[in-house]
What we know:
This protein is an alpha/beta fold. It has two domains: about 1-125 and about 295-325, Medium-chain alcohol dehydrogenases, catalytic domain (Quinone Oxidoreductase, Chain A, domain 1); about 130-270, NAD(P)-binding Rossmann-like Domain (Rossmann fold), CATH 3.40.50. About 25% of the residues lie in helices and about 25% in strands. The protein is built from ten helices and 15 strands.
Amino acid sequence: MARLVQFDRLGGPEVLTLRDVEVGDPAEGEVRIRVDAIGLNRAEIMFREGVYYEQPVFPATLGYEAAGVVEAVGEGVSHVAEGDPIAVVPAFSLTRYGTYGDHVIVPASAVFPRPANVGAVQAAAVWMAYITAYGPLFESGEVRPGDHVLITAAASSVGQAAVQIARHIGAIPIATTRDAAKSQRLLDAGAAHVIVTAEEDLPTRVKKITSGEGVRLAFDPIAGPGVETIAQAIAPGGHLVVYGALDPRPTPLPNASSYPQLTSRAYSMHSISRDPGRLRRAVAFINAGLAVGSFTPAVDRTFDLAEIADAHRYMEASSHIGKIVVTVD
């Protein structure tokens, strides 16, 4: 028997229940792992509440990321073997698989060996954040060495990853936060500049930092009407990439008469994680950065698996900087 977090109705953290469940053996193309650590993501809160793009099928479970050790492999799996230390990347649907447990089955396409110098907690904190940031900041080719990149809500795990990737490729990361108390931690994490949006005018400060040019790319998880303010900080020919919807209000397309040379688009990490070729390239890039120390995921706090509801409450409070990780004894 395995311990698995499940829920039977939509709602707050209180709906999460730790149960004994028979896991069984992996089928063709699947891997069973012993879980050592689980990375939490905002998408899982949305899934639990019923506001994600997929709806739970009850009894439902959760979890896009984990680190652990392979226990068994199904037919056709050859890239990992029993006993291998691995990481699980978010390359599947939460309606079919989840990582919130001590022993789970996941698709082999989402399982990758992890570098020898990367421990379980760190490995569980990597993949959603770094794959999300990798697409617009590296794979697209839109950011070049010396370019300024605006990273909004930069205290999040994705924001922290974006700061590190920007630095890694020679770009200049400008971080934003609403909370002045987070400024120094963002600077310590590698941001070249921090803008406190509750106290400063974003376009004015960006233009001052960039000598009037604006940023090459803005990377935003908030959406809503605020994108028009962000657009004013983007250089001609630059790019606005929206990868989340923390603001539930409608998101306007920046007016073409005001921003004639601005490219604006929505982006999802799944466009990479569910494409085998793009995912292999992303994993190679991120593992290389981990191996040389350019990428170090920031872990704000860890919880035990039995404290999963408290871990969700902590994430909902939005006071953390970096990743929240659940450990499994």
